[in-house]
């Protein structure tokens, strides 16, 4: 993995390929490369800007492919960067995904006398395609034959200097789409590079292969049967994917949260009835009547959002909810009572490999599968039986911020919707609905006070460890706060249920090991105060996040961040935002690449 772009048409391909790679930089990568018909290939370790400045002035052509690589097999060097070629240098390919049987295929090809020039799994594919193609197969047939030999996942674009006016693309488990222009096509692994060129897009499905020329395109399956595709319209604006005057996308995206909450709520809150209107669930609503169990799954932040969702659904709808990270769920039997079980998957990108596999497993067993997804038209959005879009707009910073908040908002709506179908009273529903609508303004207040959070962040920016604690709704917020800090500041941080302190973590505490305590005035506030006292008694510093007016907490905390009062179930939304800002300012103080932390990619399309 990580990002693919391609162009075929009447114009010079290079400007789109370089712009496209830049638009994909947010996904994280460590090397980049480009192949253009007539000009050849250039690859560089490091940034797209380095690649762009290495291109000779004459580098141009009407068709080309390019790639940003995030190393999986072999170090991030020029020799391992894509495009990869075959022994005769006829075929050039860019590939996202993983070839699982690459070692055995490599051995087989080496025995046939084929020399390899990289450490990647992808080169096995370029060599295989090259073998068939140089023996006389058309490029598309050579690609198809090679794909039948491999096990694994791919989104790939292939060119050949024997058939220079053609690009063949194929997909299995790794997203790929192409924008449709007039006599030109733009290929991309996500929609961001396409926004500046066209709104008309065709998504490839798993098992599909497309042949693109400037005159047109043909999509077919692996038995060469043609497939009719629908052209869909991209909704995101180009504006939304730009940084404007902000120093980082992460800060821009945090500052957008009030509008994101409004967009997520738009048309979905029935204040008079105290209910949620979820059009995406209308067709499957009947099945909720007999639901006895919900399993929520996701990875990273999406999983933590799901963890808050567990509390919400159990509290408001009385349905037992299990929560499990998708990478574990997909490998355990969770088959009991599939007719009465719903799998609810949470994913910003809608492309996370583990989440997708957990969904496929649940579907196979006959469960109803639902998705809470931000990227419209993504694989999870298309493969789940029904779902709810976040409408959070493109999230470019690798660390999830606005999408996480939007996931929490959707989960509250789901809890309200399921609750009102069961025992939740109109009066309780109305209380929640009213509180939901106040959130955007309340978030604005927190954001307006960000200077104070920046000051606290500066004070702690040199520590080596931070503990985050919370209870009930605030426990997953603690997990998420710790994740945010570790991924962008590289400070070791752990989230814990505060009640666990005496069972181990308290041993870590001394003056150098601060704790962020999520202590809003909620039903477990007194218990949190006891945990804070225990930390203080061991010399630990405490940064408390509490609700407005609770000045008394200053007696037991070293630093205090206030958030507005709201319904207890909605507090995670408000307490999360100071933690995002805290992580942001700590990382900025440490001078780190906040939007693209080391070793991380925005969307994890391989296992
Ligand atoms: C952390 C973060 C990741 C993602 C995770 C799931 O800030 O962004 O932990 O939440 O990789 O990604 P999606 O939501 O795209 O499935």
Automatic annotation (TrEMBL):
Its EC number is 2.6.1.16. Residues 284-424, 456-597 form the SIS domain. Its main location: cytoplasm. The active site is at residues 2, 602. Residues 2-215 form the Glutamine amidotransferase type-2 domain. Keywords: Aminotransferase, Cytoplasm, Glutamine amidotransferase, Repeat, Transferase. It is found in: Cytoplasm. SUPFAM superfamilies: N-terminal nucleophile aminohydrolases (Ntn hydrolases) (SSF56235), SIS domain (SSF53697). One of its GO terms (cellular component) is cytosol. GO terms for molecular function: carbohydrate derivative binding; glutamine-fructose-6-phosphate transaminase (isomerizing) activity. GO terms for biological process: amino sugar biosynthetic process; carbohydrate metabolic process; fructose 6-phosphate metabolic process; protein N-linked glycosylation; UDP-N-acetylglucosamine metabolic process. Pfam families: GATase_6 (PF13522), SIS (PF01380). The keyword Repeat applies. It catalyses: D-fructose 6-phosphate + L-glutamine = D-glucosamine 6-phosphate + L-glutamate. InterPro entries: GATase_2_dom, GFAT, GFAT_N, GlmS/AgaS_SIS, GlmS/FrlB_SIS, Ntn_hydrolases_N, SIS_dom, SIS_dom_sf. The keyword Repeat applies. Catalyzes the first step in hexosamine metabolism, converting fructose-6P into glucosamine-6P using glutamine as a nitrogen source. PANTHER family: GLUCOSAMINE--FRUCTOSE-6-PHOSPHATE AMINOTRANSFERASE, ISOMERIZING (PTHR10937), GLUTAMINE--FRUCTOSE-6-PHOSPHATE TRANSAMINASE (ISOMERIZING) (PTHR10937:SF0). Homodimer. This is Glutamine--fructose-6-phosphate aminotransferase [isomerizing]. It comes from Candidatus Kaiserbacteria bacterium RIFCSPLOWO2_01_FULL_55_19. The lineage of its organism: Bacteria, Candidatus Kaiseribacteriota.
